[in-house]
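Onboarding guide, step 5: your first structure request.
Type a short instruction followed by the sequence, for example:

Predict the 3D structure of this protein.
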Amino acid sequence: MTMPFDAMNDVPDDALLVLYANGDADAARALTMRLTPMVLGYAARLLNDASEAEDVAQEAMLRLWKIAPDWRQGEAKVTTWLYRVVSNLCTDRMRKKRGVALEAVPEPVDERPSASETMIEAERAAALQAALATLPERQRQAVVLRHIEGATNPEIAQILEISVEAVESLTARGKRALAAALAGRRAELGYQDDG
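The system replies with structure tokens like these:
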């Protein structure tokens, strides 16, 4: 018996993974649609390269499907496991790229309409991405997970395999570094001072 596709919206991730392991293609489709945007967004923010992020997202999802038959419900959240896999895959890719000259890195392509608001948002996003890129790797991972992906400190600790205190320290230092990197750019980025 197959369920209507939208009936799976309320099924937890780990239950969908177990259903997939038992041969349920609808469960795989539902889990893919639910998790791929999250995985792709996280990888894109860490790598600053959409093509590389797509490769990482695909590899992470393949690894999820491979471990599905061995998944033990209740031991870990599927998203926590996926964030850890994506973090590790991104770290591996960044280590391989370290020798690449800055000029060899392609400029990000913005395919959105050229309306004024869209341009301002793109400038803000680029400024944030550039500032994120200046952070040490672990700070960047912690800040992105906490403030962009919305993960809790205990989840981040589990993903990065560090203590909650270390997460708090990394995110605090990362936020201070981002604030310093973006200081003095309020007017340039379209923020008006009220006063």
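Each response can be followed by summary notes, for example: The mean pLDDT is 83.
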